[in-house]
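// run 5 | inverse folding | seed 20
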């Protein structure tokens, strides 16, 4: 149970860092071999392997979206009785909004699945509910 509480707090702090565009704090919770998977069929979609690739992706995200707000709706933790939260998976449902450099406002919701090993993130996979035209326009394409 303590591990689940630790995992939930770490995830909440990670999203707070994203909302502040604190890239250093955000990536400090990742393993060097971490993997991020982003959905869709746009230029920023795909699988990004290694902490430096993840950091680069989020640097681009922060440049694209001058202001963002991720609001966690729920965090569910697998293996809640793991004493340290070292090998658990978490699922967050999120509502998000962002403002692009050009002033366009975007909103979306989705689920982020996070896997933690040895106290650090090693896999994140985003599932965004609306990958349609607004999603593409928010990233600069249609």
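// decoded
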């Amino acid at each position: 149970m303590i591990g689940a509480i630790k995992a939930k707090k770490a995830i909440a702090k990670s999203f707070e860092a994203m909302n502040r565009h604190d890239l250093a704090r955000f990536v400090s919770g990742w393993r060097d071999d971490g993997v991020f998977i982003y959905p869709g069929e746009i230029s920023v979609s795909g699988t990004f392997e290694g902490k430096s690739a993840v950091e680069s992706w989020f640097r681009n995200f922060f440049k694209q979206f001058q202001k963002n707000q991720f609001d966690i709706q729920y965090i569910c933790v697998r293996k809640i009785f793991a004493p340290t939260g070292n090998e658990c998976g978490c699922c967050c449902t999120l509502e998000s909004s962002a403002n692009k450099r050009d002033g366009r406002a975007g909103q979306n919701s989705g689920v982020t699945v996070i896997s933690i090993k040895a106290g650090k993130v090693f896999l994140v996979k985003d599932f965004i509910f609306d990958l349609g035209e607004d999603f593409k326009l928010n990233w600069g394409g249609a």
